[in-house]
Amino acid sequence: MRHKPLRLGSVSLLFAVILACTALLVLLGGMTARADWLMTQKYAQRLESQYAHEAEAQAWLARLDEALAGGGELPEPARREGGEVTARFEWEDGCLLNVALSQGEAGWQITRWEMTVNWTQDTQMGQLWQGPAS
Amino acid sequence: MAERKLPGSFQIQLLALLLAFLGALALLAQAFGQSALLSRKARQLNQAAGLARNAAEVFAGSEDLSQAALLLGGEVEQENRVLAFFDGEGENCPPGKAAYRLEMEQQPQATGAGALWNCQIRVCGAGDGQELYELTTARYRPGGEGGGL
User: Fold this and answer.
1) Interface contact flag, B14 A8, Cβ < 8 Å
2) Of A73, B19, B49, B146, which cross-links B113 as Cys (Cβ 3.0–4.6 Å)?
């Protein structure tokens, strides 16, 4: 039986293909892990600031409660219009809180406590082809 | 003139190639390990933030700490502290099988009318006790004599 001689070139090629495939997998894995980490960090920071704002607003509510009972000046940014008190908080990170209280028979009631986040749609499409110019 | 091959040169070259291949593979494996570690860290932080958020919502909706402890599946420790344990899936479990330990501590703040409670929520790894995430929130309950709400 004749043995076919093993050439170094074919072995090198095989190793190179294996390394290229593995490197591609590592690259994809690394990019996915990094994207996961960045997204999670963003989520964690958003939660932290959202609840910090909630704490600030709850402290404001305590001051408002006192002011409503004592008839004193309402804490900023509260505005009184007839039987309703409204307030709009706006933070630097884009968080918004709209609060409304109305006076009923049973006293002041919170009718609105809505926290939202300013969001601007990203309309940038990168280098995508936008279609033929009409 | 015919090229003269040195004896054993093929084996040496093959060995060198194999060593280079193994070295490159080791570097790639190391990079892959780092990615896996980062991915694990991201998963832990995500779960810790989710648990802290649940606890913050429970705190906001509860009248007192014992109710919050009941909803979280934990226990009130001392007067102003709740301790709860969760497994890797974020489900309640006994301390021995836990992956996360959640601590919720509330502090009263003096107000002229109702009750303002500041709350600090910490999520740590149950094994090493390393802090993974921390959240601060507050809850105001009107109803004091000097209040208008």
Assistant:
1) yes
2) B146
Strands (E) across A17-75 are located at: none
Q: Which tens digit of pLDDT belongs to each residue from A72-81?
A: 888 999 898 8
C-alpha A34 chain-centroid distance: 17
Chain B positions touching A46 (Cβ under 8 A) are none
Distances (CA, A) of A128 to A78, A122, A124, A134: 47, 14, 9, 17
Distance from CA of B87 to the nearest CA of A (A): 19
Q: Report the pLDDT averaged over residues A33-45.
A: 94
Task: Find, in chain B, the residue whose alpha carbon is nearest to that of A38.
Answer: B42
Residues linked to residue B81 through DSSP beta bridges, in sequence order? B77, B105
Give how far A133 is from chain B: nearest CA, Å: 44
- What is the token pair recorded at A110? 């919170």
Distance from CA of A130 to the nearest CA of B (A): 36
Closest partner CB to A43 (pick from B13, B39, B46):
B46
Q: Chain B: residue nearest A26 by CA?
A: B32
Model pLDDT for residues B89-134, shown as the tens digit of each residue: 989 999 999 999 999 999 998 877 788 999 999 999 988 889 999 9
Interface of A with B in 60-119 (CB under 8 A): 61-70, 101, 107-110
Pick the range with the lowest mean pLDDT from A3-7, A15-19, A25-29: A3-7
Q: Centre a 10 Å sphere on the Cβ of residue B11 and count the other Cβ atoms it contains.
A: 9
Cα torsion at A54, A59, A61, A65 (round to 10°)?
A: 160
Report domain extents, chain B: 12-141
Mean pLDDT of A102-109: 84
pLDDT at position A2: 61
Whether residues B35 and A48 touch (CB distance < 8 A) is answered with no
ipTM of this model? 0.83
